[in-house]
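To: structure subgroup
Subject: Chain for Friday's discussion

All,

I'm putting the inputs and outputs inline so they're searchable in the archive.
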Amino acid sequence: MDATFQNNVKILVVDDEIDLEPLIRQKFRRQIREGKYHFVFALNGLEALSRIIEYPEIGIVLSDINMPEMDGLTLLTKLKELQNPGLKTVIVSAYGDMDNIRTAMNRGAFDFVTKPVNFDDLEITINKTLDEINLIRKSMAEHDQLISIQQDLNTAREIQQSILPKVFPAFPGITGFDVYGSMVAAREVGGDFFDFFLIDSNRLGFVIGDVSGKGVPAAIFMAITRTLIRAIGIKGSSAPECLGLVNNLLCRDNVSSMFVTVFYGILTISTGEIEYVSAGHNPPYVVSGAGVKEVEMTGGMALGVMEDFGFQSKTLRLTAGEKLFLYTDGVTEANNRNLELFGEERLENFLAARSEMPIQELVHDAFAEVNMFAAEMPQFDDVTVLMLRYNGPGN
């Protein structure tokens, strides 16, 4: 029995016999002195209800059946209306009064003892009842804690979703490109992210990332990474400089040994040229009427692994109408009931069949395709897709 918990539970004795209180105090004087038992007394059911209001710590009601004003059976009915699973009633009645004892048990009594009371048996009954209350109240406390945690996670999910772009079209006054993205976390919060921002009137920075692990730690690491890339990238740093600075900052304070794969690119709107760095991330695809082509990787390492890593960039050039499809491994590593992976080949075929589709519709179809492939299998990883369509020189 949890002694700390037990000390917080009071025992209400309800009986119209005046001599019972001093008798109980005498019989259980050691337990009272040691703080094991705490007794409260009432002479009838009405007084018992007042005591329960006065002492919310009452967990056991030890009640006689035959009493004036309100008997024990009526008291049981009133106590049941309180709907408090942490409040248990033990009925005390003569052995020959089995009909009333049976009625009491049917009305929710936890146990009973018979008169004349055997105090050794009563102590066993009290301890057994305290153990049951202990389990119930611990379960109730854990349930309340889980509800609180769930509420916190729901708030965290709302906060996380709020920092991801969600207003489209993102730049209504700029016609040189279209951009659209979406993320669905495997849990309440996730470690995937995407972002995009104007560096100046002719350059767009865009990024997609996938943090190792899941849940709250990954979500926090994700938020830090996304904020750092935006803060450094928006100042006009080249792609390698940006990820180099972010990597060093993540490495220095990375007490949890987490890492994040990232693809970061800078589109020059007037030419369609993209300078990019891949830090261990899945290679994107260039999608056009001519087909689907995987982007050549730069050999970079995930951020947060090794300080002062020298990132190298490459360039590609989009022509008007071409699209860039970026994704996290939650897409290709989604599995079905046969434990088959969605895979790169299936993704490439999907993109080739929809090469002329507007990017917003294509992103939505990508999620639907993965969900249909996985069918009833639970989502085990965050799924994120970001698409960029180059429209030609704009302003």
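Points worth raising on Friday:
The domain at 3-142 is CATH 3.40.50.2300 (Rossmann fold).
The longest strand covers residues 192-200.

D.
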